[in-house]
């Protein structure tokens, strides 16, 4: 794969960063956040405050560490060799995210195709059905679940699909502008992408509110409620992260960062955004529509 | 430790490992064949 | 594999005005693959004794029928945390420590590709270990009822109903998972992007190949485990019904998700070992590695098969017959590429001028004992026979042959093989040989009886047992303590070797081949800053 490229030794030394305390502090912040969350869930009063402390530490590191990397990048310490490492790294990070969502899609498949129908068909030794009146058809909250109205596909979810697909277009427009060094269009494209992402999140929040208050559709609404909220919830969380990252990139383009040749950070975030887009399409079809 | 052998010693070790391999092979084969003559009680 | 190089000494003297913090700060802040490798290996050794101590308490309880030392609840906590500690905090970090030290040296790379991420990956481990074991301490102060008591598999519904310890274990697994993903990404990127010029993928050392497949498996399966324990968490605290039939869920869904990760995990633990074995066998047989390409394809084949066989861990739970048959045959299919590896290991030794320094003793011991693991695994894969073996001590014996004789003895092989390179000193060969023979004898005395116990019907994970199992349990307990004590020799030998000892040469072993042996022992802080060129 890299035979022709690597036939010659690299013209410079690989950038091995100086010792840094950030990774250690980040690990500590994650520990404190997890500890606080565990205590909170088990009704210990201090949990909330410990969580807050952990989150604060993590935020501090995110600003410091990313700030340092951006500064190193602007100082020209990264060249093609390092750039390639970042690209490979981002690809395999996204691959791990795919596997994470696969677990929840797998659960949806199992509940919908195997466990719910089976519960509907269970016959006891006496020839009566185990759960009288339960048919095992989807959408389902299970034999003992609460009544709820499932979320329709062609209202807000369809609008949200249009929003995310358009945001995929605008981020590609921004990339094209970056390659052509058209900075105004680059900034406009990125701003539009962030705005579309934010609008998507606002509509999702409205949809959740609607589900909880009017449809009786909650996390506790059996198999449907659990898979609906966990899948869309983790997706929404990823959209939030993606939108924040895009906003950071927008801030950097406004400051004049990136050249048509060198802009890994932009591309990495764009890949992430497309990944989030694809997950939504699967969600739209498998959770809302079918 | 960190052995360094003469050519003669190396040749001797090659021969020894070969003998040992045949020996282990024969033992395994013997076990396999003997297994056919065991009947469950 | 022949690597001919035009050796440029890969260590430039001057460094662009770098200064390193000393003392503890050196370790907290380091971005150096050798420092990080050392931390991984040290952590693994410490946790090996922590996990070992737990299981010795369990073996002491099993000395006689009846309850002697502890209540069943505490017994259950010990076995589960023992497994999680040994798998996630001893074996996996040991393998990652090898990767950190060796992969850059072996492929001629100046460091790992993402050095700060590398350090983050390591420093996530101590917090995770604290989360795993903290509930034991909290229980002493009357907070909660102790650690995870479900065994390491977290099976629902027990884990849904369990106490505080389950939440701690869930987040420990999350943090360990993040660490594994970071390590895997780093290793993949390093292998793809940092190889010396001219080192094509088919010239890559087998150790790096083994780790590459491991890293792919981690990226594919660890997130699924994270998803599974997240569903468990929401079932426990946020009202979801993933594993609860009342809401249309199913506890068996948890088993599917867990073992989709859990089975590949076995190969995650073993592939780095299979990668280092051929190097050791070739060195001490003074012959090139036999069947390099076959072994690469063996790794790939086993890696691919490992993600499609998971349900053989719960044949008895109730599955349609076609599913049983599929999972039985796909599982048995793994023995084909594995047999290729065994054949290559033996063929590498065939007619070789062999000598038996400690690493070679461990390597040959590994082949025999891991062979027993493989063969007993084959009978477990048989659906009809598994009905008798399932959840018995036969399974316990089987996976300890796989993970102690296959995993931990493999790690010991690597430690003795590379320790002189890392420290610049030779370890004590006499102590090493004592360590090997004591380990092998006491290991077999510990676990061989458990095969018979399992066949006779003794269930695993139970603190009490029927009278007729007493003798074999006593043998197993005595031997387990001997096995545990023998490991003190290992720790002492390493300690002595770090502190001093006869000077090791650059090549260390007469028959050694590969880039790492061209560097001094120990290698300088920065090695291969100018990459070697492979022809």
Structure, described:
The complex is a heterotrimer of chains A (290), B (41) and C (535). Chain A is mainly α and 290 residues long. Helices cover 72% and strands 0% of the residues of chain A. Chain A has two domains: 19-77, Helix Hairpins, CATH 1.10.287; 81-289, Up-down Bundle (Four Helix Bundle (Hemerythrin (Met), subunit A)), CATH 1.20.120. Residues 1-6 of chain A have low confidence and may be disordered. Chain B is 71% helix and 0% strand. Chain B has 41 residues and is mainly alpha-helical. Chain C has 17 helices and two strands. Chain C has helices spanning 23-29, 33-61, 72-107, 115-123, 125-140, 158-161, 164-193, 206-237, 251-285, 292-306, 321-333, 335-349, 358-380, 383-389, 393-423, 429-455, 470-499; strands spanning 5-6, 533-534. Residues 1-16 of chain C have low confidence and may be disordered. At the A-C interface, helix 2, helix 4 and helix 7 of A face helix 1, helix 4, helix 5, helix 7 and helix 8 of C.
List keywords for this structure.
heterotrimer, A: 290 residues, mainly alpha, Helix Hairpins, Four Helix Bundle (Hemerythrin (Met), subunit A), 2 domains, disordered N terminus, B: 41 residues, rod-shaped
Brief overview, please?
By secondary structure, chain A is an all-alpha fold. In chain A, 72% of the residues lie in helices and 0% in strands.
Summarize model confidence as the mean pLDDT of chain B.
89
The CATH architecture of the largest domain in chain A: Up-down Bundle
Taking the sheet with the most strands of chain B, its summary is: none
CATH superfamily of the largest domain in chain A: Cytochrome c oxidase, subunit III, four-helix bundle
Question: Which structural class should the secondary elements of chain B be placed in?
Answer: mainly alpha
SS field, number of helical segments of chain A: 8
Mean pLDDT of chain A: 93
Radius of gyration of chain B, whole Å: 18 Å
| Rg calculated over all Cα atoms of chain A | 24 Å
What count of helical segments of chain B does DSSP give?
Answer: 1
- What is the count of distinct domains of chain A? 2
Topology readout:
The complex is a heterotrimer of chains A (290), B (41) and C (535).
Chain A: H1 3-6, H2 22-41, H3 47-74, H4 80-121, H5 156-179, H6 183-215, H7 222-254, H8 264-289
Helix pairs in contact in A: 2-3, 4-7, 4-8, 5-6, 5-8, 6-7, 7-8
Chain B: H1 7-35
Chain C: E1 5-6, H1 23-29, H2 33-61, H3 72-107, H4 115-123, H5 125-140, H6 158-161, H7 164-193, H8 206-237, H9 251-285, H10 292-306, H11 321-333, H12 335-349, H13 358-380, H14 383-389, H15 393-423, H16 429-455, H17 470-499, E2 533-534
Antiparallel strand pairs in C: 1-2
Helix pairs in contact in C: 2-3, 2-4, 2-17, 3-5, 3-7, 3-9, 3-15, 4-7, 5-7, 7-8, 8-9, 8-10, 9-10, 9-12, 9-13, 9-15, 10-12, 13-15, 13-16, 15-16, 16-17
């Amino acid at each position: 794969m890299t035979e022709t490229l690597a036939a010659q030794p690299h013209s410079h030394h690989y950038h091995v960063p100086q010792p840094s305390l950030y990774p250690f502090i980040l690990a500590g912040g994650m520990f404190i956040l997890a500890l606080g969350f565990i205590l909170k869930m088990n009704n210990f009063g201090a949990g909330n405050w410990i969580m807050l402390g952990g989150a604060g530490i993590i935020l501090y590191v995110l600003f410091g560490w990313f700030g340092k990397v951006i500064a190193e990048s602007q100082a020209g310490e990264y060249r093609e060799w390092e750039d390639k490492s970042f690209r490979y790294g981002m690809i395999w990070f996204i691959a791990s995210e795919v596997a994470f969502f696969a677990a929840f899609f797998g659960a949806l498949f199992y509940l919908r195709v195997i466990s719910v129908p089976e519960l509907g068909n269970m016959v006891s030794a006496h020839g009566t059905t185990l759960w009288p009146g339960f048919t095992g058809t989807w959408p389902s909250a299970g034999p003992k679940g609460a009544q709820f109205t499932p979320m329709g596909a062609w209202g807000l979810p369809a609008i949200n699909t249009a929003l995310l697909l358009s945001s995929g277009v605008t981020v590609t427009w921004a990339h094209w502008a970056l390659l052509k060094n058209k900075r105004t269009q680059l900034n406009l494209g990125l701003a539009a992408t962030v705005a579309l992402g934010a609008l998507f999140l606002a509509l999702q929040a409205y949809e959740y509110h609607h589900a909880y208050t009017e449809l009786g559709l909650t996390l506790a609404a059996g198999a449907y409620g659990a898979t609906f909220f966990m899948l869309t919830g983790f997706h929404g969380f990823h959209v939030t992260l993606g939108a924040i990252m895009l906003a950071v990139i927008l801030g950097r383009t406004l400051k004049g960062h990136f050249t048509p040749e060198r802009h890994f950070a932009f591309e990495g975030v764009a890949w992430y955004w497309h990944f989030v887009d694809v997950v939504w399409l699967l969600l739209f079809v498998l959770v809302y529509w079918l | 430790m960190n052995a360094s052998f003469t050519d003669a010693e190396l040749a001797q070790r090659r021969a020894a490992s070969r003998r040992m391999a045949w020996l282990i092979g024969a033992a395994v084969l013997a076990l396999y064949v003997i297994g056919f003559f065991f009947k469950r009680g | 594999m022949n690597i001919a190089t035009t050796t440029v000494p890969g260590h430039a003297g001057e460094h662009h005005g770098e200064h390193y913090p000393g003392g503890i700060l050196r370790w907290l802040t380091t971005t150096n693959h050798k420092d990080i490798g050392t931390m991984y290996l040290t952590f693994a050794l410490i946790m090996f004794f922590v996990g070992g101590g737990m299981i010795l308490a369990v073996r002491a309880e099993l000395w006689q029928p009846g309850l002697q030392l502890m209540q069943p609840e505490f017994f259950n906590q010990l076995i589960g945390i023992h497994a999680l500690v040994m798998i996630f905090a001893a074996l996996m970090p040991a393998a990652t420590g090898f990767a950190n030290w060796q992969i850059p040296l072996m492929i001629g790379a100046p460091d790992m590709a993402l050095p700060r991420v590398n350090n983050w990956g390591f420093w996530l481990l101590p917090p995770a270990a604290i989360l795993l074991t903290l509930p034991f301490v909290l229980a002493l102060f009357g907070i909660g009822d102790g650690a995870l008591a479900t065994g390491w598999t977290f099976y629902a519904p027990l884990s849904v109903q369990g106490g505080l310890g389950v939440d701690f274990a869930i987040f420990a697994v999350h943090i360990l998972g993040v660490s594994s993903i970071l390590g895997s990404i780093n290793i993949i990127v390093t292998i793809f992007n940092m190889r010396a010029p001219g080192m094509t993928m088919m010239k890559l050392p087998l150790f790096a190949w083994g780790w590459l497949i491991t890293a792919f498996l981690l990226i594919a399966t660890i997130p699924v485990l994270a998803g599974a324990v997240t569903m468990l968490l929401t079932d426990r605290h946020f009202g979801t019904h993933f594993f609860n039939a009342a809401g249309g869920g199913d506890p068996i869904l948890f088993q599917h998700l867990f073992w989709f990760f859990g089975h590949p995990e076995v190969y995650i633990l073993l592939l780095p070992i299979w990668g280092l074995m051929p190097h050791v066998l070739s060195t001490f047989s003074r012959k090139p590695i036999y069947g390099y390409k076959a072994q690469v394809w063996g790794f790939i084949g086993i890696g691919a098969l490992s993600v499609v066989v998971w349900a053989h861990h719960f044949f008895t739970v109730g599955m349609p017959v076609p599913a049983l048959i599929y999972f039985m045959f796909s599982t048995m299919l793994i023995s084909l590429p594995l047999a290729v590896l065994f054949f290559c290991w033996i063929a590498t030794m065939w007619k070789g001028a062999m000598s038996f320094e400690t690493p070679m003793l461990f390597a040959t011991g590994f082949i025999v004992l891991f062979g027993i693991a493989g063969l007993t695994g084959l009978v477990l894969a048989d659906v009809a026979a598994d009905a008798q073996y399932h959840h018995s001590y036969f399974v316990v014996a089987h996976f300890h042959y796989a993970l102690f004789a296959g995993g931990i003895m493999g790690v010991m092989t690597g430690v003795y093989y590379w320790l002189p390179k890392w420290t610049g000193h030779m370890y004590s060969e006499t102590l090493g040989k004592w360590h090997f023979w004591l380990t092998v004898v006491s290991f077999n005395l510990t676990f061989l009886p458990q095969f018979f116990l399992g066949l006779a019907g003794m269930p695993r994970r139970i603190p009490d047992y029927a009278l007729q199992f007493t003798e074999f349990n006593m043998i197993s307990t005595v031997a387990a303590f001997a096995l545990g004590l023998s490991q003190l020799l290992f720790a002492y030998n390493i300690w002595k070797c770090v502190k001093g000892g006869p000077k090791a040469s650059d090549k260390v072993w007469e028959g050694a081949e590969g880039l790492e042996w061209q560097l001094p022992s120990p290698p300088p802080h920065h090695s291969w800053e100018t990459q070697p060129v492979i022809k």
